[in-house]
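User: I'm writing a tutorial on reading structure tokens. Could you give me a worked example: one chain, its sequence, then its tokens, then a sentence or two explaining what the tokens reveal?
Assistant: Sure. Here is the example chain.
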Amino acid sequence: MSKKTLVLGASDNSSRYSYLAIQRLRSKGHEVVGIGKHAGTVEDVTIETTKQPVEDLDTVTLYLNPLHQKEYYDYILSLKPKRIIFNPGAENEELKQLALQNNIQPMEACTLVMLSTGQY
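And here are its predicted structure tokens:
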């Protein structure tokens, strides 16, 4: 089943984990929205540099350190995802608590591992 996913901190740099996440999500048939610091493209996903409206969002997967997440708090919560995945280096207790208060499941996990083990 496809889970629409927002990759926050998306990059078209092939050495970045967010790049690999977009590739693997697409290869598993998931719809992906990418937002990053720089515009670009990964596979068939256009990386936007501004906050985009996203309907029926299942997952936000974070590839931003906590300092850079703050400006996205209201945006993330407004999208009402079912879960937020805090990839390694993106762990953030403040956003985790905000997620819980808004009935969003926070997960400290690795999107790439979850995809490779069938837990996504």
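What the tokens reveal: The CA atoms of residues 10 and 36 lie 5 Å apart. The first helix runs from residue 17 to 27.
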